[in-house]
Amino acid sequence: MTALAERLSNQFVPFHVLFVFVMIFAFFSSFDPTAYASSATSKVGAEVEALLTWKASLDSQSQSLLSPWNESGHCNWVGIGCNKAGRVTHIDLESYGLRGTLSNLSFPSFHHLLSLKLYNNSIYGTIPSQIGSLLRLTNLSLSNNHLSGTIPSEIGMLSSLIYLSLWSNRLIGLIPPSIGNLGNLTELYLFDNQLSGPIPHEVGMLRSLFVLSLSWNKLTGSIPQEIGLLRSLTDLQLSTNNLTGSIPSSIGNLGNLTILYLHENQLSGSIPQEVGSLRSLSNLCLEYNNLTGSIPSSIGNLGNLTMLYLYENQLSGSIPQEVGSLRSLSNLCLEYNNLTGSIPSSIGNLGNLTILYLYENQLSGSIPQKVGLLRSLIELDLSKNNLTGSIPSSIGNLGNLTILHLCENQLSGSIPQEVGSLRSLSKLCLGSNNLMGSIPSSIGNLGNLTILHLFKNQLSESIPTSIGHLGNLTVLYLYYNKLTGRIPSTIGKLKNLKFLAFAENHISGSIPPELGKLKSLIYLNLLGNKLTGSIPSELENLTDLQFFDIADNNLTGHLPQNICLGGSLRHLYASNNSLIGSIPKSLRNCKPLIRVTLERNQLTGNISEDFGVLPNLVYIDLSYNNFYGELSQNWGRCHNLTSLKISKNKISGKILPELGEATQLQVLDLSSNHLAREIPNNFRKLDLLFDLKLSDNRLSGNIPAELGKLSNLEHLNLATNKLSGSIPRQLGECVKLRNLNLSKNLLSGGIQTEIGKLQFLQTLDLGNNSLTGEIPEQIGELQSLEILNLSHNSLFGSIPSSFNGMRSFTSIDISYNHLKGPLPNTKAFQDASFEAYKGNDGLCGNKTGLLPCSPKMSNGVMGKRNNKVVLLVIFSVLGILCLVVVGIFLVHCKRVGNIENVPEGATNENLFAIWSYDGKMVYENIIEVTEDFNARHCIGVGGYGTVYKAKLPSNQVVAVKKLHSSEDGELADLKSFTSEIRALTEIRHRNVIKLYGFCSHPRHLFLVYEFLEGGSLERILSNDEEILHFEWTKRVNVVSDLADALSYMHHDCSPPVIHRDISSKNVLLDSEYVAHISDFGTARLLKHHSSNWTSFAGTFGYAAPELAYTMEVNERLDVYSFGVLTLEVLMGKHPGDLITSVSSSPPTAHDILLKDILDSRLPPSRTHVEKEVVLVAKLALACLHTNPQCRPTMRQVSVILSKQSPPLQNSFHLISLGQLIDVNCSTS
């Protein structure tokens, strides 16, 4: 140092250099190496102590995994990395199986920590706020643990952070806005937690971000516009949250984006056109949202797109042609939307497409031929659309196709032979279309096929034997077609088959025994064919069978004895055959049985031994067989049984009290047997019972009063027994009762007044007993009562005056009693035949077989009436004065309306009246809910008005018919309107549409009817899909309903109501296919036997021929129209020229077979309805007689249809129309 000083003294040294030198010299002079080493060692020691403290807080297994941490040299510990100074920079313990919390890890001790990776452990508890002290941290990975609580806001202090991963924990609360401070962050993973609240706008500050993944949380609010500032973003995943609002247009700024996942949210609005700017995008998933509008054409710009998922939204419009530009696309899924229009032909450009899902839309048009160019296609599903035309033969080019679903469209033509080229196909569904022709034999080439659905088409001819080559087939559904021929024995080769359904075809021949080789079969349905012969015993080998249906065939022989040998059978249906023998023994203890229908066979055997306790049985019908023996106690132990029907057998003994233990019973029918003794008292336990039929037995004793406890009972039939005693007054507690039949017993005493409580009662039959006393006044207050039979009793006194107000009556029989006094002045009594009131010596009236009522005899009645005469005159005068005042007021209102020509006074200047069981319907409500009769609410247009559907604020749905204005102005409409009101207010019938109210107003003239959800008969007959549910029994019932309604209108209304426009458009059906006549806009009221000359009203094709030369209106016009409509119901279409053929003289349709004119869309009628179809056809032809006087009356038609149809004289298939036409005519 001295030498240095000497050397410097010989030189000039600048002051500032000298100063620095002195300061450095002073620093080193004072430096203590020992002290520095001590400080560094102290900080390293703090890190080591922090690690060991945290280790000690972990569970014992975790501590053993970190046992090397007890050794010296912490930088060599497992999962620990250090810098050159020995400071901890990395803690990497991913997938070590550690269990514990982070609360004992002292984060402030690690000043140099760059990376903290604890991924895939069992760390639980919260993230400590002290984590914000790791200022140098660049990588934080705590994902796939069990962390809970919120993300601390202090995480925003980690400004050096590049990678943040907290996914798959149990974190809750908000994403802290402080996360916007992490300006260096490139990847952020918070998915699969329970985070809530909105996405913070501060996320737009993360300009370096490549990946943002927030999926699988509970985030709400909208996607912030600031997301468009993240121009470096390549992966954006916000799916499976509760995000709302629209997709921000700013998303179009993300030019580097390759993945965009927004699916499974509640996003709404349209897909922004700006999406088309994302030219780097490969995956676009927007499914499971509420997106509306059309698919933007700009989507065609996404040339790199491989996956496009837009399904489960509310998208509309057509599929843009620009989709054909997405040549990289492999998956295109647009299903479950409201897309319309045709499938664009440009879709054939997508040569890389492997999955194409367009099902559950409203697409129309044909399947483009160019679909055959998609040779990479593996799955194609176009089902549940409105596609028409044929299946293109080019589809055979899709050699890689494994799934082809075209079901539930309107495809026609035949199945192309080229389908047989799809050798990779595993699932083929063509069901519910209009395909015809035969099943191509080439289908046998599809060796990989597991599911084949061809049901609900019009396929014909026989099932190809090549179907036996489909060795991998598990499901074969061919039901509801027109297949003929036999079941091919080659089906026995389908060893993997589990589901086989050939129901409702025309298959004939016997059941092949080879079906017994299908050991995997669990479902076999052969319902509704023409199968004959016996059931092969080989079917007993089907030990896994759960569903077996052979009903509605012509099978003979025995049921297989071991049909339930495997103990798997749940459903057995064999009704409507000619089976003989006993119940299979294996059914006795077949525990899984749920439903059994064996009715209408010739089965026999002792019923008491055939069934054990079946705990799962819900429904069983053994009616119309030859079973004998007594009822078993086991039925009462079937605790899930809801329906037990054993009528029309030879069962004897008594009804066991144990039956009352089957507390789930809703239907019990033991009628037409040989049961004796008393009805058990403990039936009161069956509180769910709504249908009890014990008629036509030998039951004796009293009717149990306990039946009154059955509060849900709607139908009670105890007729034709030997019951005695009085009618229990407790029956009045069965307030839901609709039909009560106690006829043909030995009942005595009076008719209980409590029956008057049964306000829903429609049928009351107490005939053929020994009842005495007077008819209670309360019976006349049953406003729903339609049929009343009190005949063959010993009732006396006069008919109560309350019967004068009974307008619901359609049939009454009071014959053979001791009644006296005048008949009530109602249609039911006045139009009743002599048979209905004969045998009562004291009755009087202006009726055949009765003496006129003398003043003395009717004095009581007349005395009361005399007191009313004065009042009647007074009220008549007052009524006329009121009418004059109202008339003046209405004229004034009309003038004001004409002068002002504005609607402001509409509410105060209308004449509104309403009759409704639920209160007054307000004019303003109807105008509001129909949007002033907007066309979108229109459901039909008739000659006199337009019908709208209106849902009132009370949620009641009604039909509103707004009458058209005419050339004559409002008065002409009022005339028609008044006619209709007068007719409808007099009508109360179950088969006539109900009127709720009407409104006459300067702006509107409308009627309010009940709304029937089934729609018009015209609509159903023209719907090829719905027509399949409108089978023969329902059609016969509809014809009967219409006959009853017209009979009531013609013969029970005074004056008679002539409809004049009977047609399929004016017949409405409810959900149960019960028919109701509607549209009385052209109805005219006539005095009986009078004429009315007026202009033509009706529908061409239904009008009677005599209207060509006379305009006389009478009931015979409706009879003719009824005949046309009945043929339309049978044929499924308007009869057209057939009417001329059957009406010509001689008839040119004489040799046409009845079966050839029936609706070919339905399977042929079954044996048990064939005679009903013949009877209906015969009546229809009778109604079409050219001589009006030769047509039957509607009452005659109604009566004939209500009786049992006569047996057929010839085979149904040989009956011609000539055999049904009655050439004789009696005009008397």
From TrEMBL:
It is a single-pass type I membrane protein. It comes from the Eukaryota. Pfam families: LRR_1 (PF00560), LRR_8 (PF13855), LRRNT_2 (PF08263), Pkinase (PF00069). Keywords: ATP-binding, Cell membrane, Glycoprotein, Kinase, Leucine-rich repeat, Membrane, Nucleotide-binding, Phosphoprotein, Receptor, Repeat, Serine/threonine-protein kinase, Signal, Transferase, Transmembrane, Transmembrane helix. Its main location: membrane. GO terms for molecular function: ATP binding; protein serine/threonine kinase activity; receptor serine/threonine kinase binding. The keyword Ion transport does not apply. It is an enzyme of class 2 (transferase). InterPro entries: Kinase-like_dom_sf (IPR011009), Leu-rich_rpt (IPR001611), Leu-rich_rpt_typical-subtyp (IPR003591), LRR_dom_sf (IPR032675), LRR_N_plant-typ (IPR013210), Plant_LRR-RLKs (IPR050647), Prot_kinase_dom (IPR000719), Protein_kinase_ATP_BS (IPR017441). One of its GO terms (cellular component) is plasma membrane. Its EC number is 2.7.11.1. Residues 933-1208 form the Protein kinase domain. GO terms for biological process: defense response; detection of stimulus; post-embryonic development; response to other organism. This is non-specific serine/threonine protein kinase. It is found in: Cell membrane. The chain crosses the membrane at residues 12-31, 869-891. ATP binds at residue 962.
